[in-house]
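[audit] Reproducing an earlier prediction to check determinism. Same input, same settings, fresh worker. If the tokens differ from the archived copy the diff job will pick it up downstream; this log only records the rerun itself.
[audit] input (109 residues):
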Amino acid sequence: MFVDFGHRWSFEFSSSPKNFIFKSNFLLLKLNLIRMYFQKVAAALTFLALASANLHDRAYYEERFFEWLQDHKVLAQSGLHFVKMLQNFANNHDLIETHNSGNHSYTLG
């Protein structure tokens, strides 16, 4: 049995008390906002952890990354997308630099 008390609160009953489900649109909204906040924090912490594994400091990559963004007219879709693109740029830059410092018959660019 489902009982609706308006747009904010509703209850769903079943034959077992264990299956009593409390639904709140307001509560779900808050939970989604909290989840999004923690996803952003997790992304930032991941970025910091991965950035510490790179060859250079973050400022080094940011300067080159901003130049690359302007040259290629690339726009980030969100802050998280920007962080991921910057980390990928830094990882690829390190890969190229490491390869080119070796004794190979070709260079990466």
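[audit] rerun output stored. Observation attached for the diff report: The two ends are 65 Å apart (CA to CA).
[audit] end
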